[in-house]
Amino acid sequence: MSSARTNARRVAVQALYQWQMTGQNLSEIERQFLEEQRLKDVQKSYFIELFYGIPKNLGAIDDALAEFVDRPVEAVDPVERAILRIGAYELLLRLDMPYRVVLNESINLAKDFGADGSHKYINGILDKVAQQKRTVEIQAKLAGKK
Questions:
Q1: Digit-coded pLDDT (tens) for 10-62
Q2: pLDDT at 1
Q3: What domains lie within the chain, and their CATH numbers?
Q4: Which of 130, 145, 5 lies closest to 68, judged by CA?
Q5: What would the pLDDT profile of 57-111 be if each residue is shown by its tens digit?
Q6: pLDDT for position 146
Q7: Pick from 68, 34, 65: which is nearest to 48 by CA?
Q8: Which of 51, 101, 103, 145 is the most exposed, having the fewest neighbouring CB atoms within 10 Å of its CB?
Q9: 113 to each of 92, 116, 134, 143, how far by Cα in Å?
Q10: Residues 6+ apart with CB under 8 A from 4
C-alpha cells in the first residue's frame, strides 16, 4: 500500500511525462488528471507542488542534473527524465525530506515506470546530486555512524 505522497510522485511522473512529450499547458494536463480520477489516493497538494514547481525551477533542476548525466538532459529517456527531475527538485528544494527518502522513492519510481535497469542509472545520478547539494546532511549522517 503506497502512501498518498508516494502516489503523488507516481502521478507527477505521468503528468510530467505528458508535459515533456506534448508541451501542453500545465493546467490543461492537471484538469485531465482530475477528470480521469487519477488523483484518487494522492496527496493533491504535493502533486501540485511537484507538477508546477518542476517547470518553474527547470533551469536549476536541469543544471544540477546536467553535471552528472552522460548526455544533454533533454536527450535522457522522457520517463527517466521526469523521475530525475522529481528527485532533483526534492534534493534542491525540499530540504525537509531526507536525501535517502528521495533516492529510495526515485529508485522505486524507476523500477515501476522505467526501462530495465534504469533504477541504477537514476540512483547513480541522484546520489551524485545529493553528494553535491546535501553535503552537510550526508556528513552529519556519516558522523553519527562513527
A1: 999 999 999 999 999 999 999 998 888 878 889 999 999 999 999 999 999 99
A2: 57
A3: 4-145 (1.10.940.10)
A4: 130
A5: 999 999 999 999 999 999 999 999 999 999 999 999 999 999 999 999 999 999 9
A6: 62
A7: 34
A8: 145
A9: 23, 9, 26, 35
A10: 41, 42, 43, 46
Q: Indicate the Cα dihedral angle 7, 8, 13, 18, nearest 10°.
A: 120
Only one residue has cell 522505486, namely 108
Residue from 121, 126, 120 nearest 89 by CA: 126
> How many C-beta atoms surround the C-beta of residue 24 within 10 A?
13
Contact 82, 125 (CB under 8 A): no
Q: Which residue stretches of the chain are H helix?
A: 4-22, 26-35, 44-56, 58-66, 78-93, 99-113, 118-133, 135-145
Question: 129: closest CA among 78, 89, 97, 94?
Answer: 89
Query: What angle, 0 to 180 degrees and rounded to 10, lies between the N-to-C axes of helices 118-133 and 78-93?
Result: 20
Residue at grid coordinates 510522485? 9
